Queue: 2 jobs
Job 1
Amino acid sequence: MAATIKDIARRTGLGLATISKYINGGNVLPKNREAIEEAIQALDFKVNETARNLKTRHTGYVGLLMPALTNGFIMEIIQQIQLELRADGYGTALYCAVPGDDDIRRRTELEAVDFLLQKGVDGIINLPQNEDGVHLQRPLELGIPVTLIDKQIPELADRVSSVIIDNVGAARTAADELLNAGHRNIVGFFHGETNYTGRRRAEGFVDALHERGCPVDSDRIVFLGGARERTSQELIREKLRQCRPTAVFAATSGLTSRVMEALEAEGFRVPDDVSVVGFDGVGTENGHGVKLYSMLQPTAQIGSAAARIMSEQLRVSTGGGVPLPQVRTLPATLFVGNSIKRV
Amino acid sequence: MAATIKDIARRTGLGLATISKYINGGNVLPKNREAIEEAIQALDFKVNETARNLKTRHTGYVGLLMPALTNGFIMEIIQQIQLELRADGYGTALYCAVPGDDDIRRRTELEAVDFLLQKGVDGIINLPQNEDGVHLQRPLELGIPVTLIDKQIPELADRVSSVIIDNVGAARTAADELLNAGHRNIVGFFHGETNYTGRRRAEGFVDALHERGCPVDSDRIVFLGGARERTSQELIREKLRQCRPTAVFAATSGLTSRVMEALEAEGFRVPDDVSVVGFDGVGTENGHGVKLYSMLQPTAQIGSAAARIMSEQLRVSTGGGVPLPQVRTLPATLFVGNSIKRV
DNA sequence: ATGAAAGCGCTAACAA
DNA sequence: TTGTTAGCGCTTTCAT
């Protein structure tokens, strides 16, 4: 049986309250401090967090609610978050959704929140699927802090913090790179017209074209829906045949792979026939000479910022202070490959 | 304030024990059952797991102790494990180590166990870095079940279960494929001579060569150490220059990438100059015509088996029965690419 | 600075 | 089957 503070109290002849106080960093007479420390050593005492939690109504866990673990972006963020939460003493209760179409992902996210609430997490870090934030109503009502990753939810802007990248700027940079190389027939592939990041990136893409006086053809702004890989592959190929672009921008890691496949299937060579800028580092280090230009998201910093904000909110909700919801916007960076040809 | 069983008791006029019994699936008179259900609905009652845990000495969390989240293999296993643990009502307390050399990884794994123990997990699923299992002594003494992934620990064979793949068979399959294509000058790259999976795969590789009467040149069995990427890249290139192999086998996802880079740097074309079989699906879908042959590990099944075994152990440690440590060996499968040329 | 005592919400004897 | 009661290990007033 593990030792309890009762054992420490007995061994030192002190009262429970004194032991408890010491453990929690309170002031204790030097000689008592020594006695307690000795006893803790001798009995190998560790506080029972469950008992403490019952009293304090905390659990020491932060729920990390993410989409299915299917790409490096999510993976790196998770790695960083759990690392930093741990440094602050928090455990990471991981909840990755099942893969599926938009609708499934949204629905499972509701269950996810129930599960995490039932487990009693102190806070939730979430890369949301429900972009209206319905799933966060209950946690918020219960006073459980929420930090968003990758997306903002306007309806909740005054109650939750967000860590996002400058999507508009990222897409703009990508487009600029292509424009600078002289391209005018550029097709941009975006993920989901109803998707926050998809919309923002399309926005930046269009902005850049406008600014440079490049005619914006709505036919060349392509939104592809959810996880219907089969279909989107077809759509990409169709679009390539139809537009015969000299350059393409893929605004997502998944789209980057699919676009590359489609290009190959349609007989486009990179960069001779078509220049490419991708996303999230897909194709930047294949061993075949071609290294894709890519917009790289600062995953470690995103995770880091999210964990830090969460810790802060948690500290605040314990002590005093005001938990101002904040928005951290981080820049994406351009990976310079060799997949762009001047024309 | 959330409702407690006390509230339910008051509202129904029943005793605490009856409510508790009902909640835990005990027999209750039909009319009482209805009353309780009604009250639960009305008061939106949810059991306080912390309080329950304090009493039952469980936490409902399984610690998932993994190396740094740096590749798809680990990612897919984590995805599956947390999915299945959840289905059994368990939360997943994720602990991914910091990246680093072997020594750092081993040391951080010790801290990891401390952390998880302190958080009070009911069981630990672990892809071990300390191949002697020192880090698992304490959990085992405390009666906390442990399930290993990817590696076995002989010293602990009678106390922990393992889920592994048939490493010997996988390497043998890879080598056979190369041998069948007529290759005799084959170099195999393995991860760490002191590494469990590295050794097993080398074993299978050598076995296959032997069986086919192919001379086994110890120069062509190359072990590369930890995370010193810079150096191992150099070593690979040296080896390629020295042996001028017509075929290579890379026994790890990381090695597959590095070997491909080295081949490119040394001017080997795949498959014209050299045939390649890799691991874990790296390079199987790059968009440039060459699709690497690869040994694919059944990640979902590995995760699934690990979670199932853990659930079983947990159930057993709660109730009766004997938690026989078991070893599940799953086969790897060959992905057929176009990176092998007959000679 | 310290100690006594109450109680967090639940489970599990034990009695009825 | 049901209710009473005694804790699980800790924190926290409130006296001292």
Job 2
Amino acid sequence: MVTIKEVASCLGVSPTTVSNVIHGNTKEVSQNTIKRVQEKLEEMHYIPNMSARTLAGNSSKIIGLIIRYPVMEGKNAVQDPFNSELIGMIEAEVREAGFFLMLYASDCVEKILTMATIWNVDALIVLGVGANECKKIKKTAKIPVVFVDCYFLDDEDSYNNVGLKDREYAEKITEYLIDQGHKKIAFLADNRVGVDFERWTGYCHALERHGLPVRESSFFRIKYGESGIKESYDAVYERKDEFTALFFASDYYASLAINYFYDRGVRVPDDISVVGFDDNIFSRNVRPRLTTVQQDAGKKGRIAVGQILAMIEKRTLDVKNIHLDAKLVIRDSVKNIKTEQ
Amino acid sequence: MVTIKEVASCLGVSPTTVSNVIHGNTKEVSQNTIKRVQEKLEEMHYIPNMSARTLAGNSSKIIGLIIRYPVMEGKNAVQDPFNSELIGMIEAEVREAGFFLMLYASDCVEKILTMATIWNVDALIVLGVGANECKKIKKTAKIPVVFVDCYFLDDEDSYNNVGLKDREYAEKITEYLIDQGHKKIAFLADNRVGVDFERWTGYCHALERHGLPVRESSFFRIKYGESGIKESYDAVYERKDEFTALFFASDYYASLAINYFYDRGVRVPDDISVVGFDDNIFSRNVRPRLTTVQQDAGKKGRIAVGQILAMIEKRTLDVKNIHLDAKLVIRDSVKNIKTEQ
DNA sequence: TTGAAAGCGCTAACAA
DNA sequence: TTGTTAGCGCTTTCAA
């Protein structure tokens, strides 16, 4: 390990000068010294020691990426294709900005904040964590925090968040179904909080707006794990005649369902229509191709990191809680049944 | 930030004593003091400062996870479903062992080692990096390194690696195809190095063993990106009559191909048989279900972290380069054409 | 059984 | 324009 001291003594200058050159505080350093120091730094392969820098009161250059702790058996937090894309994007952006990414999966606010303190983390990006946790994190953390895909119970606009117009687009895709003649539409998700709650609400709004009844029995909770999913789909199958269309809160579940139905001889969209949400690899890699709501995970990541960097550099932000636009993508999983009625 | 000093002065003891209690060096501390210190630590919510610890010569408790830098347009390094599962598993294991995970995507050995030095990283887990890079990393890094899914040009057994019996199982699945009467089998992958090279080699061995010709023209290089894939598949389609079976080096490409063929009216397995490799979500979420080689990404992750921890704790390892067993999973994407001939 | 003191590598206030 | 020095929080050696 080459230290600043070593470089300095090699050159016969003081550590301060070397440090100043490293940080570009060169107003008071002669051109000649700057050059000599820079060359020596290069020559000796000087690599900074971040622990020392951080300890000396500088920023750690670490950004903590918090992902939700896995609830599901045999499934981990990175595995969801939407999350993966987001994480990959965030890693790339953080790295390119000269920061380091510490990945930490947890639902426990205490642990998250401890991790942030231990490492003197500069900022936190928090993915898809529940409203209560968000509140606590925001209240306690003394560093910039950007949430991604979070929904809050209290003052929405006091949070820094990058999300999607989930409700609006859930409403749109539901209206599309209604427009295609569907009146009996089920909503299926593995929970009904946060993002999924918003999508459910959008679905409800669309039904109400068109004078269709909103029934609690039209909500199916999909259980976790392979066997849980199968069990849940069995329940849907039993009641399939009650519905003409199924709105899944994610492409993942929608594509699994299409294949499940295929196996049981139920054809999509002829026998039942299906829509999803997200437009990830699953929606395109299933037949029939899935009609869904398209969102850009990469964009979310880029914006989130952009916000974080702006906050770190203490620039202010005009918009705090951003909800990105999405796009209805019509493919082949919905049948127009208007004429049949 | 509560420091050891503060805790110490609150208690009227020295920082040394507090530090000793924290680290369990309690042979020379009285029971009473231990208790008092522990309670105070708790009460004051003492959280260590890792920068200071690291600077004072202790281990950083950071494990660096290096993933290959993305080559493909619009695709990032975390996005591959196999990688995601592995990363999620590694994160969980690392966290549970009391370490922290720094995620870093790069192909550049210099940058990787700089990152390791900057942070005084305790160990490195390196995923799917090329042989040349592996060699350099092993030679230069002065910390434990475990490679995952890497293949090496020089002395294989001098590396710590967790891989799969890629060659053997590629051979097995090829033999299965031959056993089902297939003689004209293409091999398709997006490259032919590392893991994919092994799979290709296994494929070649099987053909040779059964007296079938190995032709360079039976290798298809799948191009990156959505349009690249389509273009590549178009080329396969053009020559589809030359083959009765297609061996894809990954489930991802195999499942995409099945759907591509479906769209063009080519039925799998009736018109052409398809096999994949990995058995991830794609193989099960496609119809017909994909016949493939099953491997356990989670297990790889667990073993890799186990090896790393053992190395960090300076316990020795008997087996260094582990190649896990896989399993041939026969589903519905291969037709038995023996009788037709 | 406990504590004082030095030092890890770096930064920054201040002096020269 | 350059250098001296103190100190960030912690560990560890050595003395008490």
